[in-house]
Amino acid sequence: MVDPDEIDEDAPILAIAAAAELAGMHPQTLRQYDRLGLVVPARTQGGSRRYSLRHVAQLQEVSRMSAEGMSLPAISRIIELENRVRELHLRVRDLEDRMKSELERRPGARVFAAGATGSVISLRHGTRVRRATEVVLWRPHRALPPGDDDTDH
């Protein structure tokens, strides 16, 4: 049996007929949504459409919003924004993972907070920062000899 946590929702595995059946739509509707840029599947080398489980969920969402009277351009914008939010969540998770692994790899690394004005504040490990502050992991470009600091450069 397949573990649901191991299913890749973005894997383009479904032919148009299977995706249409799962979404409760006619394959021609999927072709139209593809042409309009609403739900754009991956393509095989031969040009056949391949849908993922995420695409099927999007198709169901498009159907629901359309049935509620929302226009296709409005639905398209919502999907575009949802995709952007998802991409940003993935990027944040990746950056958090990279920062965590860097801190584990270099326990002496220092973390700084940079405010909107450019002010820099050194943080202790585990310190929370305000929302308007970005957290940056400091990496020296070159190793400094012990006792040397960069203040006179």
UniProtKB/TrEMBL annotation:
Gene3D superfamilies associated with the record: 1.10.1660.10
| Keyword field | Coiled coil, DNA-binding
- HTH merR-type domain span: 16-81
Spell out the NCBIfam families in the cross-references. Answer: HeatShock_HspR
Q: Please report a single Pfam family linked to this protein.
A: MerR_1
The parts of the chain that form a coiled coil are 78-105
Q: Which organism is it from?
A: Microbacterium aquimaris
Instruction: Please give the InterPro entries that the UniProt record associates with this protein.
Output: DNA-bd_dom_put_sf, MerR-type_HTH_dom, MerR_fam
Q: Which domain of life is it from?
A: Bacteria
Per the UniProt record, the lineage of the source organism begins with: Bacteria, Bacillati, Actinomycetota, Actinomycetes, Micrococcales
Q: Does the keyword section mention Coiled coil?
A: yes
* UniProt-recorded name of the protein: MerR family transcriptional regulator
